[in-house]
């Protein structure tokens, strides 16, 4: 059954403005937590609006990842999962990747959020859930940039080289 949409346009406009304010504050003051905090209402509303099994799973996954990201940012890095990353580092060492090639876990989480929000854009049929997924996509990319601008720069350089 479709969710009510009487106030959905107004809610999505407000959530867009909140996300834009969070992005602006994060980039201006170098506070990535501002993006994560501004993203919370949009992700919660996305969870409420999605209905299909896979889209509901993706939106709930986004909420879980956002909570994890907030914990990682507040702990200033990988304090929570550092022990597991060190164990996995031994396996990565044999892949031939240069030292430092893997980003911090606090950057990997929003990258996964980008993928899930892109999936929501592709799989959902509702314009409001697409709008919310777009907010999450742009905010997640901004969060990656806020945490490590070099990653976005290297992606743009790879894109130029491919053209």
Describe this structure in words.
This protein is mainly alpha-helical and 163 residues long. The chain has one domain. 79% of the residues lie in helices and 0% in strands. The protein has seven helices and no strands. It has helices at 8-29, 32-49, 53-74, 82-93, 105-123, 127-147, 149-162. Helix 2 (32-49) runs antiparallel to helix 3. The termini are far apart. The relative contact order is 0.15. The mean pLDDT is 84.
Q: Characterize the largest beta sheet: strand count, sense, and whether it forms a barrel.
A: none
Low-confidence stretches: none
Number of helices: 7
Determine the fraction of residues in helical runs and give it as a percent range: over 70%
Distance between the termini: 45 Å
How many strands? 0
Briefly note the structural class of the backbone. Answer: mainly alpha
The total domain count is 1
Q: What gyration radius follows from the Cα positions, in whole Å? A: 17 Å
Strand content: under 5%
- Report mean pLDDT, rounded to a whole number: 84
Key attributes of the depicted protein:
163 residues, 7 helices, mainly alpha
Map the helices and strands:
Elements (H helix, E strand, L loop, with lengths): L7 H22 L2 H18 L3 H22 L7 H12 L11 H19 L3 H21 L1 H14 L1
Helix pairs in contact: 1-2, 1-6, 2-3, 2-6, 3-5, 5-6, 6-7
């Amino acid at each position: 059954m479709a969710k009510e949409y009487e106030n959905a346009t107004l809610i999505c406009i407000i959530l867009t403005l909140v996300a834009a304010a969070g992005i602006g504050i994060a980039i201006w003051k170098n506070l990535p937590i501002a993006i994560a905090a501004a993203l919370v209402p949009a992700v919660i509303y996305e969870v409420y609006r999605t209905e299909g099994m896979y889209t509901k799973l993706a939106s709930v996954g986004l909420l879980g990842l956002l909570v994890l990201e907030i914990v990682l940012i507040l702990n200033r890095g990988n304090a929570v999962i550092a022990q597991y990353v060190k164990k996995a580092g031994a396996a990565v060492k044999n892949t031939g990747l240069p030292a430092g090639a893997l980003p911090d876990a606090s950057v990997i989480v929003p990258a996964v959020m980008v993928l899930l929000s892109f999936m929501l854009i592709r799989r959902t049929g509702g314009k409001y859930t697409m709008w919310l997924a777009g907010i999450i996509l742009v905010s997640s990319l901004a969060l990656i940039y806020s945490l490590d601008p070099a990653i976005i720069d290297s992606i743009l350089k790879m894109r130029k080289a491919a053209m």
